[in-house]
């Protein structure tokens, strides 16, 4: 295991100790990490069964394929210190987080990067980041610590069950080849009443998005994520939020639309989509 420093205070009491060490865990200060390894095996039935029960598979084998078949860790090896959506999308997402994430929450930012778009004025107890590029994650000032892991190779999250109040996945769900297993793991690490917020637009790395996403429409992509939630026993009925600029409300059918998709973006303002569901129940706060 290789330790990678990040520039945030490290609070050992606030962190969960990882189990199977298939990821790179990093924290502030060049101190030796105390890591507990617990290799999963058929005898460890309690751990294996603690993830959400997958009721059905949403994707076909063909729907999981990508044009670029190189390992994701290789594709994302070079850091990209850019935002993949426009300012209006980011503002809408930050406002949504302000509404749905309570101060003092413990948050897992799944498939994150150098920025998490959390409201700057809100203090959370702990924000854990996950991604594929350590340099990007190390620059993210909202993270208390992070780990690097390819979820398309191994969907297991080395986190204790019921250890987070919220899980976020921002403009990245289109790259998951085993979304049912990832959503099941998210359910496991969420506390009862915890929220999972999946947001996306129409931008993507076209060659790294799965076939079911590349070949779909805006409507079908929303329905795809809804089905990801519905495939795992334990999530509440997904809530869909759409904010679509008027000029972009219709599907782009121009002859050159495929070129813009290949470059990873469409012209005009970015449409905003968020799918939200809770573990077991949606809490009511006074």
From TrEMBL:
Domain Methyltransferase type: 134-198
Lineage: superkingdom: Eukaryota
Cited InterPro entries: Methyltransf_11 (IPR013216), SAM-dependent_MTases_sf (IPR029063)
Start-end of Polar residues biased regions: 14-23
Sequence segments annotated as region (Disordered): 1-23
One of the record's GO molecular function terms: S-adenosylmethionine-dependent methyltransferase activity
Family annotation (Pfam families): Methyltransf_11 (PF08241)
Protein name: Methyltransferase type 11 domain-containing protein
């Amino acid at each position: 295991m290789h330790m990678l420093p990040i520039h945030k205070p490290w609070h050992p009491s606030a962190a969960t100790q990882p189990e199977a060490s298939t990821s790179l865990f990093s924290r502030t200060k060049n101190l030796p990490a105390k890591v507990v390894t617990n290799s999963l095996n058929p005898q460890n039935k309690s751990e294996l069964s603690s993830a959400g029960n997958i009721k059905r598979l949403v994707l076909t084998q063909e729907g999981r394929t990508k044009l670029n078949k190189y390992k994701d860790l290789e594709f994302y090896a070079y850091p990209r210190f850019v935002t993949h959506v426009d300012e209006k999308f980011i503002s809408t997402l930050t406002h949504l987080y302000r509404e749905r994430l309570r101060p003092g929450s413990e948050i897992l930012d799944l498939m994150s990067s150098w920025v998490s778009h959390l409201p700057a004025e809100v203090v959370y107890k702990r924000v854990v980041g996950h991604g594929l590029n350590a340099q990007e994650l190390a620059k993210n000032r909202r993270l208390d610590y992070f780990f690097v892991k390819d979820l398309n190779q191994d969907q297991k999250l080395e986190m204790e069950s019921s250890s987070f109040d919220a899980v976020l996945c921002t403009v990245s769900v289109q790259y998951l080849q085993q979304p049912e297993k990832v959503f099941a793991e998210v359910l496991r690490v969420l506390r009862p009443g915890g929220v999972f917020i999946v947001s996306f637009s129409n931008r993507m790395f076209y060659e790294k998005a799965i076939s079911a996403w590349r070949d779909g429409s805006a409507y079908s992509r929303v329905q795809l994520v809804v089905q990801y939630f519905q495939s795992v026993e334990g999530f509440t009925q997904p809530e869909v939020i759409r904010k679509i600029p008027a000029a972009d409300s219709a599907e782009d059918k121009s002859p050159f639309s495929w070129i813009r998709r290949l470059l990873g973006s469409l012209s005009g303002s970015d449409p905003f989509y968020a799918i939200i569901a809770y573990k077991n129940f949606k809490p009511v706060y006074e």
